[in-house]
Amino acid sequence: MDTYSAPGALLENLTDAEVLAAVNTAVDSLDDKDSVAVAQAASAGIARLEAVRFRALAQLNRHRDGARSVTQEVAFALSVTDNHAGALVATADAVTTRLPRTLELMDQGKLAGFGAMKVATATAWLSDEDARAVDALLEDRIPGKNPDQIRKAANHAANTVDPDGAGARTEHHREGRRLTLRHGETGVASIEVEDAPVEKAAAAYQRIDRAARALNTRDETRTLDQLRADVALDLLLSGQGGTSERSEVFLYMDLFTYLGFNNDPAELAGHGSVPAALARHIATGPNTVLRRIITDPVSGQVLDLGRDRYRPTAGLDEFVRVRDRECRRPGCHRPAQTCDIDHSLPWHHGGHTNADELIDLCRRDHRLKDEPGWTYHLAPGGTLTITTPTGQGYDSSPPSLHPPRPAPLADEPPPF
Fold first, then answer.
1. Whole-number Cα distances in Å, 146 to 95, 115, 116, 151, 352
2. Does residue 391 have a pLDDT over 70?
3. Confidence band of 119 (pLDDT split at 50, 70, 90)
4. Is residue 131 within 8 Å of residue 99, measured between CB atoms?
5. Secondary structure of residue 194 in the 3-state scheme
6. Which residues does 154 contact at the CB level (< 8 Å), separation at least 6?
7. Which helix (H) or strand (E) holds 401?
């Protein structure tokens, strides 16, 4: 058969390995139709591999009897965020127990892992029997659909199978409301009230929209979207409707950057690198407090300080937070000022309350430290090694405030 007269026919009969080989050797010769066919074949292969991954994660979860630390180990092993790891583990458990037809669609290459996660989320509140009923209803409805269509179809099927439970589900979702902060590209972030009561969220939006439109005069240079964002932030920060509170962020920049002698990037704890111009803008704000930090001139690490008491002094507490910037578990970026100060070696096992043995851990990772099979070792240089129950080691070091520099020769003058 002529490939170009029926571009997908030949490719549909190829194995995944053959498709990859064809793409790697002849991708530049593919026409548009063949390019689409190869992309479709690759997506089907990825779906099959995701099914394998779900089975493996479900097996791990069964071996650990559903221990909460499974999520953290998966996050380490797959280099994903904790939230994504938790969703992967929950979906793996669902598709290997109560959603067998959803897993079969993945085996056939007809449903991607992200779509399967939508089904798992929509059916999480159902009994096993009702979840299997939804699974059967969706078998012919979700192949070829995008994730949003799958979510809507799965939610509709779940509400149809258990209409009485739908009200309880809604109430459960409303009880799960939370405020989240997501860091984006350099210098921007998003704040969101998730799962808020719909009537309150709609009313809040209308209030913000009215205020933004009132500011949208002929001389206003900001767009309406920008005005809404600015109004929302001003309402949160000005104290209108609630008590105004002082907020604190840690911004790290060297003196020469602050003075404008160079444009080295600075770092905002929890967010990451920010351009020098933005750092100077933040640092020169009317409520900004500047503080000098002494570093080792060679390594760039914050110099040590210690107290041999169980509860850290206020100064030691602040020192550890400034030094660590964020939660010390690799991959966790919660700012240090929201974390717990913890002993790397338990105090009742001979640990000391000094900067050499104290680290910042968010509350979740503080609890993870007590899970069976997890060990934490803090080396003298500040490197924290976390070993998981499967023996995998992951390192974390407090960031230096400047790049390491060669030690000066004995006869060299000081840099300034």
1. 19, 7, 11, 9, 55
2. yes
3. very high
4. yes
5. strand
6. 118, 119, 121, 122, 123, 134, 138, 142
7. none
